[in-house]
Amino acid sequence: MSVCKWIATSLLALGLAFASQLNAQDQSKQQTAPAPQTAPAPPAAKPADVASPDAILAAVYDVISGPAGQARDWDRFRSLYLPGARLVPTGPNKEGGGFFARTMTPDEYVGRATAFFEKEGFYEKEAARRLERFGNIVQVFSTYESRHDPKEAPFARGINSFQLFFDGTRWWVVTVFWQAETAENPIPKEFLPAAH
């Protein structure tokens, strides 16, 4: 055997041994890695809240709306969301330059919203909607208006992008992804209510 062949064979054997050792280490890590956490099952939903896309959207807006100090029905809120669902507010950075997107679980939203709702009235309603469906999935651009009192003019408007899922029995909210309107980014006319 030539020196070159001997070196090549030795390197190949060394490489195979090293790969085998790495594979054994990977298998060892996989066996000791903790199992992924699964989201807890939500409370049972009211059947009328999850019977259709219209119903579940109406329930989302209704459950977060009310006067200052009124406790929201957070179990009803949680019942609308698929385990692992996310709420994602987005907008311009306050420091200037660029935009943020923050993901929250329904429980994290509850934690943030509860203190605000204790001090401020908050009523949110849908002003216009664009819905598309394919099979068991639905995408909705839902234009919202936010008020401190239902008789007042909105203090904010924007678009909630809802992703909904039908499991054969009921509808679920998978994601709510939203952005508020700004002077620099007004809501386009196609997402506003049609003029009467």
Can you tell me about this structure?
This protein is α+β, with helices and mostly antiparallel strands. The chain folds into two domains: 1-29; 47-191, Roll (Nuclear Transport Factor 2, Chain: A). It has four helices and six strands; from the N terminus they run αααββαββββ. The protein has helices spanning 3-32, 53-64, 74-79, 106-119; strands at 81-92, 99-101, 123-134, 137-147, 156-166, 171-180. It has a six-stranded mixed β-sheet with strand order 2-1-6-5-4-3. β5 and β6 form a beta hairpin. The longest helix is centred in the N-terminal third of the chain and has 30 residues, at 3-32. The chain is globular, with a radius of gyration of 25 Å. The termini are far apart. The model is unreliable at 1-26 (pLDDT under 50).
Compact overview of the structure:
The chain has four helices and six strands; from the N terminus they run αααββαββββ.
Question: Approximately how much beta-strand content do the residues carry?
Answer: 25-35%
Can you tell me the overall shape?
A: globular
Helix content: 25-40%
CATH topology of the largest domain: Nuclear Transport Factor 2, Chain: A
How many runs of DSSP E, i.e. beta strands?
6
Quickly name the level 1 CATH class of the largest domain.
Alpha Beta
Mean pLDDT across all amino acids: 86
Q: Into how many domains do the coordinates divide?
A: 2
Structural class: alpha+beta
Please write the string of helix (H) and strand (E) elements: HHHEEHEEEE
Distance between the termini: 92 Å
- How many DSSP H or I helices? 4
